[in-house]
Structures are given as structure tokens and as C-alpha cells.
Amino acid sequence: xxxxxxxxxxxxxxxxxxxxxxxxxxxxxxxxxxxxxxxxxxxxxxxxxxxxxxxxxxxxxxxxxxxxxxxxxxxxxxxxxxxxxxxxxxxxxxxxxxxxxxxxxxxxxxxxxxxxxxxxxxxxxxxxxxxxxxxxxxxxxxxxxxxxxxxxxxxxxxxxxxxxxxxxxxxxxxxxxxxxxxxxxxxxxxxxxxxxxxxxxxxxxxxxxxxxxxxxxxxxxxxxxxxxxxxxxxxxxxxxxxxxxxxxxxxxxxxxxxxxxxxxxxxxxxxxxxxxxxxxxxxxxxxxxxxxxxxxxxxxxxxxxxxxxxxxxxxxxxxxxxxxxxxxxxxxxxxxxxxxxxxxxx
Length: 346
What we know:
Order of helices and strands: EEHEEHEHEEHEHEEEEEEEEEHEEHEH
Helix content: 10-25%
CATH architecture of the largest domain: 3-Layer(aba) Sandwich
Shape: globular
Number of helices: 8
Largest sheet: 13 strands, mixed
């Protein structure tokens, strides 16, 4: 593995091992120190959105390979401005720093917030955002999106309404990422703008297949030693491209019909402004039935919204639950499993 350069361009100022202590950001200091000590691996925490959060070991060589694949995909050059507005506690923030170090990018740091572009008034070359941040920026200052030339969105599903707005962008490239902590950031990207795609494209060195249950298998020898089996149901187009359908864990078998909650959520997201998700509960007649869970006060127009969203009869929620507050993971994702377990009687 090539040695990691012991320098970082931070908002126009060059920092090295010798000047590391002058960076007024303890988490950034700690991570850079780890990188520049030539350690073979670090430990990173999974999000916990589909299970109990855990610490996993991430080889530095794998992290570097992932970072270089992203730099190559987006053709990022020395001196390009990159925005870090994600927590350094998690892999997404760490990877943005590593890309900046390896690509000799000029890293601009904003405190993680719902609207990281609020105080940005100059052009940037590259940034990574969560769907929550995108949603807030589109509400408060949508014109600032075009300040960023190349954007990746990851960490959770992007709602349909935000995606439709982003598709109108002509001045920047916007991609939704597919990946997990176990792959050390994304392994595939789907373009939203200026050209819209329904499929994900693998990064260099990554290929895909599926198992007997149509769940995605990731082959990335430069990242993980063995093929990584996921619980994501997909349609494989070829070894480099797939269409994501939903999570196997969440599939609802209602009277023999398999329903993917994510597809219903995608349809409803245009019409529901509050946090929500689709889940399942036991049903005497159908085995399982579709339920809608909202972080909201009761709504009286749901049947109308179901019609507007184009839900088929078997897709329409049989029950609706209104909760004051969902369970969330540390990095802001809805914890579906814990929310259902805590509040919904089966």
C-alpha cells in the first residue's frame, strides 16, 4: 500500500504532522494522527438501523482503496474544494477526510447541521450530504445546491419529493450512494442529475451478483476478503449495475403477495411531510398486513393520499399508528425495528 501523505490542506492552509496540534478540531486531530501513525486498521461503528450497532475493524488499505475509487469516479483533482459537514464519529465523515488527504483536496469544514450550506457563499467541487440535510437545504436555500459541482447523498433513503426537485438541477452532478459501514463507504452510485438513472453503477474493482432470494452479493476483493451478502432485494442488470427494490427483512407477505415497504414509502413521500415508515403486523386473515407508522398527530385525509399516491388495494395500510417520537440511531436514521418493538403491539 502507498504511504498516506502526512499533510492536509484545510481551508487553504497546509497542515502536517508537525502542525497537527494547531488544528482546533479534536476529532479531526485524532483521526489524522491515526492515519499518520501508519496503523494497519481502525475501528468504526455501524449505524444500527437494521440491528444492534457494533464496532468493526476497517483495514486502512481498504479505506484508501475506497477513497481512491471515489476520487477517480468524480475526477477530483489536487486543490479541488471538498466540504466536510458529516460527523467524524462515523465512516462517512472519516472517508471525506481521507479523500482530501489522498487527493490533496482543499477541505472545508462545517459543523454537522441540518443545513450545512447556510453559511456557504462560494463554489465547492465536492460534498457529501445526508437526505435530512438535502431536505432542509431545499426548504431553506435551494439555490445554494448549485454551488456544489459534484454531490453524493447517502446514509438513508432519499425521499421522492427531494429527488424530483434535485432532478431539475443542470449545474451540478448529483448521485445517491449505495454502501454500508462494512464496505467502508459506498460501492455504487446512482445519478439523479443532470441525467436521471434508476440503476446503481459499481465503482472500480466492485462487481455484483445475487443469491437465491434475489439479495445482492457484493464482490469487492480490494475492500473485503470474502463476498459480502446483503439483505437488499435487487434486480441485477449485469455485474456492474443493479436496481434496488428494498430490504428482505422488511418484506411483507400479505396473503401470498410480497410487498416491499420502501416502494410504498417512495410513493407516499411526495404527500407526507412528517417522518413515517411502512411496517407489518400479524393478521389473522392475510398472515401479515401493511401498516403506516407516523411521527405525527392524527391526519384525516389518508384515504385521499393513498389514492393520490397510486396505491393498489393490497398496498393500502390496514392500520395506522401515530407516535409522538420514533426511535432513532445515533446518526439520525429511523430505527424501524426498535420503534415497532417498543410501541406496536403484535
